[in-house]
Design goal:
Elements (H helix, E strand, L loop, with lengths): L8 E4 L2 H10 L3 E2 L8 E5 L5 E6 H7 L14 E5 L3 H13 L3 E2 L4 E2 L3 E7 L5 E7 L7
Length: 135
């Protein structure tokens, strides 16, 4: 059965530092789709984040590159398998140089924290109790 994939493309100021950050979070790089200007970060079977230095990003985007440290361009939501995994991922990100991006959200059935990566892109990590999901 076909599974649709998503490839968020993010401009980064320092590709080497961004590669170190995301591998520090436990993600693998796919060397087949990485080079001196691009890193392919495999988050899951259906999520691959493409990190592009500004020169390479400009090859695709026709608009100026936003400074995500000064304005919001996208919120990247990522699920986690438990509350503990939310904390583990966010705490690791913070230890690798990310900055907090808002307050912890604890609604009992749903728990989330967020951080801004090295370039200011906001990542929201969320766990939701599977027993509360309809269906």
């Amino acid at each position: 059965m076909y599974q649709q994939m998503i490839f968020p493309n993010l401009p980064v100021a320092d590709l080497a530092a961004s590669k170190e950050f995301f591998t520090g979070l436990g993600y693998e790089l796919n060397p087949a789709f990485s080079d001196d200007h691009t890193a392919s970060v495999v988050v899951s079977d259906t999520i691959v984040v493409m990190l592009l230095d500004h020169e390479r990003y400009a090859d695709f985007a026709k608009k100026p590159i936003a400074d995500a440290t000064k304005s919001s361009q996208v919120l990247l939501g990522l699920s986690a398998e438990s509350r503990a995994k939310v904390d583990e991922l966010v705490d690791t990100a913070l230890s690798l140089g990310a900055t907090p991006a808002g307050d912890t959200q604890d609604h009992g059935f749903m728990y989330g924290r967020s951080f801004d990566d090295l370039d200011g892109h906001t990542w929201e990590i969320v766990w939701m109790d599977p027993a509360t999901i309809p269906g």
